[in-house]
Amino acid sequence: MQNHKFVNVIFLFNEWSTDPRKHLYRELFNKSSEWAEFLLIQHPVGLVIHTFIKFNEKIIALFKGKFKIKKLHRNVLLYTPVILTHYVLILKMNFLLRIDIILFCLQCKRILKKRFANYKIILWINNPRLFFLLSKLKYDYLVYDYQDNFDYGYDGVLNKIAFDYNGKVISESDLVICTARVMYERAVKINPNSVIVNNGNDYKTLTVMPSNINTEMSNIKSPIIGYLGGIRNWIDFDLMKFLITNLKDVNFVFISLVYRNARREFENLLVHNNVKWISYKDQDLLPAYLNKFNVGIIPFKLNEFMKGVFPNKFFEYMACEVPIVTTHLPELQKYSDIIGYSGTKVEFLENCRKAISGDFREKVKQYRKLAELNSWEKKAEKINSHIKKILK
To answer: Helical H runs in 225-292?
Structure first.
């Protein structure tokens, strides 16, 4: 391994600024700096789609040079391709989108040839629908960052096309990194080079409380039940309505990006006087917000897709010593004795009341140590070790 140069080519799940693995990758940059460089490829600018949606944010920014290749770290480059339509449409692999696939791959090949001509390539993909890249890009090793239970849609219904692609990606990978048990059990039957690495938290940042920071929560009176993370249709909105109407003396605060598939239902929650929405916040500011939560909730639906979810927010709440109440997510069951692990709406409600009243005080004493053991730094150490093994 010492006789070769390596570059990790990572196709991001999102744009770099909001990518859910951003803090893990940052730790990997440091852990892998002695043997590897990184090329991050974020969601492309779509000339047609972004002319009508996010025109200033995308098209104007493109012509102003915002999306030129950037150096994020001493061993990290960020690259943004340009296509005609939209990245999500490419993933559907429609016949009419082949020109975009060609454009996308040509740009990836060009940047690799220009910057990393003599490197061995470790290709990372995080979605089975990126399977089309495997026949179009040259690489030496393949890492599958298996982050979600892609065999199913958010609604829990089996997606046969995704299921088939998923199996192919797993079988062709040199390493499969699974974030949940159900994905590991699927992967290890196909590929013995499969490991479990649950999601973590940015422990060093979250355990330093910023001083004298005014936030949008400064004037909100306690108690506060808070939710951190994306608002998608995997949230149990019926449960949220039940909680909001039965806890009228409690303030509900959502700190999140709101995705299109849940916008209408979320807007129905905002009509209540005890509900407030605060847009996405950078990780460095989170302690100022989370430390005002009396309870941190994970109100997710239960279906086949959600069996593979280990929420990032779980250890983020723990790092800030926020009492946790959640639905019966399988990945969180092993923590059920120190959280409000709730099987019904009524049980969820009662656990919220107990947490507010201080009944979780003893449970919370264990949180920070668990968060430290599950920091992104620890996760990066483990992943770096697994990758070095496959390279040897």
So the answer is: 237-246, 263-270, 286-290
Total tally of structural domains belonging to the chain: 2
Q: Report the C-alpha gap between 31 and 38 in whole angstroms.
A: 12
* Position 211 pLDDT exceeds 60: no
CA-wise closest residue to 146 among 122, 166, 172, 121: 166
Q: Do 220 and 360 belong together in one domain?
A: yes
Continuous H helices in 202-340: 203-206, 237-246, 263-270, 286-290, 312-319
* Coil/strand/helix, residue 343: coil
Q: How would residue 221 be classed by pLDDT, with cut points 50, 70 and 90?
A: confident
| pTM across the whole model | 0.92
- What is the C-alpha separation between 359 and 357, in angstroms, rounded? 6
Residue 382, domain member (yes or no) = yes
Spatial separation of the C-alpha atoms in residues 75 and 26, rounded to whole Å:
11
Q: Taking the CB of residue 333, how many other CB atoms lie within 10 A of it?
A: 12
Query: Residue 105: which domain range?
Result: 6-200+375-391
Residues 319 and 183 in one domain: no
Q: Are 93 and 113 in a shared domain?
A: yes
**H/E element, 63:** helix 61-63
Q: Tell me, what CATH number does 328's domain have?
A: 3.40.50.2000
CA distance 260 to 119: 40
**Bond into 223 cis (ω within 30):** yes
Q: What is the pLDDT of residue 326?
A: 98
Domain assignment of residue 299, yes or no: yes
How do strand 82-83 and strand 120-125 relate by DSSP bridges? unpaired
What proportion of the chain, given as a percentage, has pLDDT over 90? 76
C-alpha to C-alpha distance for 273 and 269, rounded to whole angstroms? 9
> What are the structure tokens assigned to 169, written together?
């990606």
Helix (H), strand (E) counts: the chain: 16, 16
Beta bridge partners of 64: none
